[in-house]
Amino acid sequence: MSISAVAALLLLSEAPPVPTNAAPEIPAETTAQPYAGDVLPPKVVPTIGTAPSPAPVTPEPSSGEQPTPAPGSPNEIVVTARGDAPPGDPLQAVNIESYRAVQAIDQALVGPIAMGYQSIVPEPVRDGVGNALRNLTEPVNFLNYLLQFKIGKAAETLGRFAINSTFGVGGLFDVAKKKPFNLPYRRNGFANTLGFYGVEPGPFFYLPLFGATTLRDMAGNGLDMLVLPTAIGKPFNRTAYAAPTTVIRALNDRIERDAEIERLQQISLDPYVETRTLYLEMRQREIDALKGRIPDVIAAPPVEPAVRQADTLPDQETPIVEAPADIETPPAGDMPPL
């Protein structure tokens, strides 16, 4: 036997016996790999005490985008829009821009000038000038009451004009509204006459220098401004008269509306819409009062909400509730303090 054969026999005698039922060992490099078309279930390895799988990460929104929280969450943001233009305000977008521009000019220029005018000029002087300018509108009021066939109010307006022009020193003092005359000022004009005869307001406008108005009111106010210059002439048709009187009227009006303007800017959710609504409602009430649908706004002012109900019903007596007979009422001096 050769040396190589002897070495082979020694190696075979030292190797452990192989069981007959054992599966033959397959080398790792020869393990069969699945085909590309095979689908294997995911391998699940149960573990104890491990954290749950994290939720899928939602990509952050790009710059300029805001996340939309789930409905009902505490961070929900509700954005309300003004919506389409209503039928009475077809130029709503233009009017809103005009309103913003007018308010910006008012805050920067008109408001400070009006407040300065109020602080510099004494109130009696401002009231006197305002009364005189208002007295000059009485002929227009008188003419329109005649056109509306309201002879009684026309006579009262003519009486106011005569009393204030004489006893009131050219209208500087409103003597007619006091006793014994008791003639209140009632504003009237061609815009009211047009509405009295059924002319609709037309589209709403918010214009510089004019503010809130409608097509009907613009036409009527234009006619009002032509009465004195056309009927009388000088000095009402001169720029030297029209310019300063227009400025004074505007300043007095701005002072009177200061509280309302501040309330709209600080409290109102939509100052433009509220301004439009208040103006149209006020104008409709004036037309309805002329037609007799509601009481005269001068003769029957609205009841203040702060007035108690007992004060608004003076004819009703407050019922007196008597204590039952079996309950002893202590004397006034023995009542416990409140």
UniProtKB/TrEMBL annotation:
Residues 1-22 form the signal peptide. Residues 17-86, 310-338 are annotated as: Disordered. The keyword Phosphoprotein does not apply. The keyword Signal applies. Keywords: Signal. GO terms for cellular component: membrane. InterPro entries: MlaA. It comes from the Bacteria. One of its GO terms (biological process) is intermembrane phospholipid transfer. Belongs to the MlaA family. This is ABC transporter. It comes from Sphingopyxis bauzanensis.
